[in-house]
Amino acid sequence: MGQGVEWALHSCVNMSWTPVGEAVSSVRLAAFYKLPAAYLNKQLQALVRAGILASVSGPRGGFQLARRADRISVLDVVLAIEGKDDAFRCGGILKDAPDGAMEADYARSCLISQTMRHAEVTWRTELSRQTIAGIAQSIERRFPDAREETVRQLTGVRGRQEARTI
Amino acid sequence: MGQGVEWALHSCVNMSWTPVGEAVSSVRLAAFYKLPAAYLNKQLQALVRAGILASVSGPRGGFQLARRADRISVLDVVLAIEGKDDAFRCGGILKDAPDGAMEADYARSCLISQTMRHAEVTWRTELSRQTIAGIAQSIERRFPDAREETVRQLTGVRGRQEARTI
């Protein structure tokens, strides 16, 4: 699994905190973690194609969540970045075994393939139960300043504390 | 995940059927599925390094299971071929966030990393519960001739049916 999954998940959590209707540029999203903006932009475009993000053009353009964060699962993000194929891809080598049948669908009937598929399903089920909103809420509970600080950095809006000192 | 996992799992099941103490050459194991012998040999060597197979040198040399098939899990084989790293590798990008701490172990503390880790554990647990012996027995129940036919092909010993016709 590439680094893009980590970048995409963190960026989605961060975007779940920014005001609705306010897009964030890939440059700002990348700068937050000192990531290469061009490569992060590719991951964000993949999230757009998967319907997880919406891209907004224009001078105040950028990216924003395309739907509520409690309707975006971690699995949605992982599959958008990594593709929808299972980690284990049955090559159907039983076709070439002495008793193999060319017309058989060994991805379905082979017991090794079934075992790997079953494990993949448990993994996907686990990730489908976790949402971007759920992770964001857990972070807020543990790090009460995280949300405000992130919004301040991503949108350029001063946090309350900083505003008071001026 | 590479094709090596599929090849290795099938080869382990096949070796669970061959007589104890009788090694099978990588050429025969590869020929069974018309696989490239040199590349299969690399996978088999990885299984030897992991203590799953034992290699036997000499004219009747080759590979055999290094322990009972009910003590070799599917996870053992997968990790031997693919390496022991999690599919998701936390790059710790929170270190570079505005409030990031260089000394923090974000692979442990980051909630995104924890979510991915938890899913990995469910996947590994599932695969650790399945053994080569369990798969072999399921195949035997469903395809009663599979074991005998495989042994015949891999060891050159004629099956009962073929012997009768001579």
Shape of chain A: elongated
Largest interface: A-B, 45 and 45 residues
Total beta-strand segments of chain A: 2
Strand line-up in the sheet with most strands of chain A: 1-2
Please name the CATH architecture of the domain at 3-84 and 131-155 in chain A: Orthogonal Bundle
- What is the tally of helical segments of chain A? 9
How helix-rich are the residues of chain A, as a percent range? 40-55%
Oligomer: homodimer
Overall radius of gyration of chain A: 21 Å
Distance between the termini of chain A: 46 Å
CATH superfamily of the domain at 3-84 and 131-155 in chain A: Winged helix-like DNA-binding domain superfamily/Winged helix DNA-binding domain
Top-tier CATH class of the domain at 3-84 and 131-155 in chain A: Mainly Alpha
SSE ordering of chain A:
HHHEEHHHHHH
Category by helix and strand content of chain A? mainly alpha
Largest sheet entry of chain A: 2 strands, antiparallel
Proportion of residues in β-strands of chain A: under 5%
Low-confidence residue ranges of chain A: 158-166
- CATH topology description of the domain at 3-84 and 131-155 in chain A: Arc Repressor Mutant, subunit A
Chain-averaged pLDDT of chain A: 92
Task: Outline the structure in words.
2 copies of one chain form a homodimer. The first copy, chain A, is 55% helix and 5% strand. Chain A is built from 9 helices and 2 strands, in the order H-H-H-E-E-H-H-H-H-H-H. In chain A, a hairpin with a 5-residue loop joins strand 1 and strand 2 (62-65). In chain A, strands 1-2 form a two-stranded antiparallel ribbon. Chain A has helices at 4-17, 26-32, 37-49, 74-82, 106-109, 111-128, 132-142, 146-155, 160-164; strands spanning 53-56, 62-65. Chain A has a domain at 3-84 and 131-155: Arc Repressor Mutant, subunit A. The longest helix of chain A has 18 residues, at 111-128. Chain A is mainly alpha-helical and 166 residues long. In chain A, helix 1 (4-17) crosses helix 3. The model of chain A is unreliable at 158-166 (pLDDT under 50). The radius of gyration of chain A is 21 Å and the shape is elongated. Chain A binds chain B through residues 1, 3, 5-7, 9-10, 13, 32-35, 74, 87-91, 93-94, 96-99, 111-113, 115-116, 118-120, 122-123, 126-127, 130, 135, 138-139, 142, 145-146, 149, 153, and chain B through 1, 3, 5-7, 9-10, 13, 32-35, 74, 87-91, 93-94, 96-99, 111-113, 115-116, 118-120, 122-123, 126-127, 130, 135, 138-139, 142, 145-146, 149, 153.
